């Protein structure tokens, strides 16, 4: 499928183009076709690319990869949205860095719903246990949730995880001040399962391979 077909199918505003390990000219190529939101995994690579593409003033960069606490100081204020906040300690560190840089950072809470050891993210019970601490961090705004389910052949086998993320969002939204933390965003679905993710209420699908081809 072409980019324009996927765009028509998913909705332009719901596509995050995952450009990790893709060259600058391919990012420009997609930008020239109208794409504005790009997601990167690795801090140094992301900051380098941001710099090389700073002439594209309306491009929006997201950080989606696992973030080590010692890199928090390099990322606050640099990304429109950080999808991969996966522990209370990381959130606290980001909050402190925001304080010293006098910025507010929009984040998503990454949830590991399948309990896979290989994936980062809060497990649900741990998230519930520290939710009140998370929402009190004054320099972070929680826009919503992100999940990375197990690899799937058909997309259908991960539908329950997408549903569960949406239910978690609805549950927490009931008791959380939406003026302070909107909780509206659901970042879920990749090249292999984005159609199912959209059906289950994704507001952002993270698409790499289907847009760019295989990574180097
Ligand atoms: C690489 C990556 C993607 C994109 O995966 P594709 O299968 O290439 O679409 C999405 N989300 C995260 C967190 C990733 O690391």
Number of domains: 1
Number of strands: 8
Question: Major sheet: order of its strands?
Answer: 7-6-5-4-3-2-1-8
Number of contiguous helices: 9
Low-pLDDT runs: none
The unique ligands bound to this protein are:
pyridoxal-5'-phosphate
Radius of gyration over all CA atoms, rounded: 17 Å
Secondary structure blueprint with pairings:
Elements: H1 3-10, E1 15-18, H2 24-32, E2 37-40, H3 43-52, E3 60-63, H4 72-75, E4 81-85, H5 88-101, E5 105-111, H6 124-134, E6 140-147, H7 159-175, E7 185-187, H8 194-199, E8 205-207, H9 209-212
Parallel strand pairs: 1-2, 1-8, 2-3, 3-4, 4-5, 5-6, 6-7
The structure holds pyridoxal-5'-phosphate (PLP).
Polypeptide structure, described:
- The protein is globular and about 45 Å long.
- The protein is an alpha/beta fold and 216 residues long.
- It starts with a helix and ends with a helix.
- Strand 6, helix 7 and strand 7 (185-187) form a beta-alpha-beta unit.
- An 8-stranded parallel β-sheet has the order 7-6-5-4-3-2-1-8.
- It has one domain (3-212): Alanine racemase (TIM Barrel).
- The protein has 9 helices and 8 strands.
- The mean pLDDT is 97.
- The longest helix is centred in the last third of the chain and has 17 residues, at 159-175.
- Pyridoxal-5'-phosphate (PLP) binds next to strand 8.
């Amino acid at each position: 499928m072409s980019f324009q077909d996927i765009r028509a199918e998913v909705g332009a505003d719901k596509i995050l183009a995952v450009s990790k390990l893709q060259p600058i000219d391919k990012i420009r190529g997609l930008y020239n076709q109208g794409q504005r939101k790009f997601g990167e995994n690795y801090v140094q690579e992301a900051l380098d690319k941001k710099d090389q593409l700073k002439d594209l003033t309306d491009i929006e960069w997201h950080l989606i990869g696992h973030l080590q606490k010692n890199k928090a100081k390099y990322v606050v204020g640099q990304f429109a949205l950080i999808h991969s906040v996966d522990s209370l300690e990381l959130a606290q560190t980001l909050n402190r860095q925001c304080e010293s840089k006098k910025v507010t950072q929009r984040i998503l809470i990454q949830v590991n719903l399948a309990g896979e050891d290989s994936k980062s993210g809060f497990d649900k019970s741990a998230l519930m246990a520290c939710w009140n601490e998370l929402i009190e961090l004054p320099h972070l705004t929680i826009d919503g949730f992100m999940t990375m389910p197990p690899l799937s052949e058909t997309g259908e086998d991960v539908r329950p995880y997408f549903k569960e993320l949406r239910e978690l969002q609805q549950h927490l939204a009931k008791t959380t001040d939406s003026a302070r933390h909107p909780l509206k965003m659901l970042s879920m679905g990749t090249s292999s399962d984005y159609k199912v993710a959209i059906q289950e209420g994704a507001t952002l699908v993270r698409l790499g391979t289907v847009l760019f081809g295989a990574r180097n």
